[in-house]
Amino acid sequence: MTTKGVKVAQAKTALDNVLAVATRFKDYNVRSYLARRAKDAFASMDADKNETGATRFIEDFAEKEMKWMARQERVYEMYGSARKSVVDDDVPSS
Description:
Strand content: under 5%
Structural class: mainly alpha
Helix content: over 70%
Radius of gyration: 16 Å
Shape: elongated
Distance between the termini: 52 Å
Number of helices: 3
């Protein structure tokens, strides 16, 4: 695998890790916002197309966001509402 391929693969792994952390949030709005933000950053930096974009995504976005998201996840666990969002409610279909 070329260096370009390695960096792009690392960027994709970083994106997967960010999305995994985002899905652990209980609140639907936070989950969807963080996932959308990560995907938008990945696309805007062309992380899947070139090594420079992949490196920028990893260094400028993923590393910083992972730290922030992990801290915020703990805060949400301590102080977040136990009540589900309307979107998350399991409503039996009629």
